[in-house]
Amino acid sequence: MFITFEGIDFSGKTTQIRLLEEYLKSAGEKVHIVREPGGTAISEKIRELLLDKNYYEMCSEAEIFLFSASRAQLVRELIKPMLNAGYFVISDRFHDSTTAYQGYGRGVDLETVRKINELAIGDVIPDLTFFLDLDEVEAQKRKDLLPASKLDRIESANLEFFRKVREGYLYLSKSEKRFRLINGSLSVEEIHNEIVNEMNVLSRVKN
Ligand code: Z5A
User: How high is the pLDDT of residue 206?
Assistant: First the structure.
């Protein structure tokens, strides 16, 4: 199974992915975790460029191609082979991030985003996408606990940008059947329990 986690930054994706990994491994499953952008040598190089605060001049078109180039490599070099080898692959972000951030956030034409996403991922479509929904003000409170110098190029954007990104995710959660919206302001344990319940429901349906 291919599972993706989405949400604005600081919504708690990484925390939940670690818990789900432990849960699946303790049930005897083979699990591989990847993050976007990144995950292969080429994709990690692209990540450095994308998040570097020396490049605020990066235009939205360059940004979408770089995220998608990183993803195209990750899909073919790692995700597809791991799925074929029977692994649960869990990705911290995938193509829905491009729709939400570059499409809704930056304003790249949504039909163009759809075509670029299609080229990047081919037939590798997530089976299940957990969207941890946290509003931008709550996310900012978590962000404020860190010194501003620790934030990367994209995390340093303003609240209005993240409001639009969230709006994109909310739209996707209504239009994509594979989306499961989870309230990201619940406790870590409550969110984990919801995720495990969803996984159990899905595996019952599949069997
Ligand atoms: N991006 C894009 O624009 N287009 C694309 O196509 C793709 C990505 C793929 C990648 O950043 C950036 O690239 C990202 C989107 C953009 N930028 N932004 N903004 P990244 O990989 O460095 O980071 P991230 O994906 O944004 O995640 P993150 O900042 O690491 O946050 P997170 O993984 O969602 O959350 P976390 O690390 O699990 O938790 C954050 C904090 O909240 C931490 O202190 C936790 O202890 C706390 N936390 C977690 N859960 C809870 C709950 N339930 N309650 C209270 N506190 C909690």
Answer: 66
| 68 CA to centre of ligand 1 in angstroms | 19
Atom of ligand 1 nearest to the CA of 157: 19
Q: What is the pLDDT of residues 22-77, one digit of tens each?
A: 999 999 999 999 999 999 999 999 999 999 999 999 999 999 999 999 999 999 99
Residue 151: what pLDDT? 87
Note whether 79 and 34 are within 8 A (CB). yes
**Is there an atom of ligand 1 within 6 Å of 188 CB?**
yes
Token match 């991030």: residue?
97
How far apart are the C-alpha atoms of 106 and 127, rounded to whole Å? Answer: 27
Residue 34 sits at φ, ψ, to 5 deg, of -130, 160
38 CA: nearest ligand 1 atom = 21
**Nearest-atom index, ligand 1, CA of 50:** 13
For residue 8, report the distance from its CA to the centre of ligand 1, in Å. 7
Range of 161's domain? Answer: 2-206
pLDDT digits (tens, 9 = 90+) for 80-94: 999 999 999 999 999
Cβ-contact 47, 37 below 8 angstroms: yes
- Structure letter (DSSP) for residue 144: T
Q: Total domain count for the chain?
A: 1
What's the CATH number where 133 sits?
A: 3.40.50.300
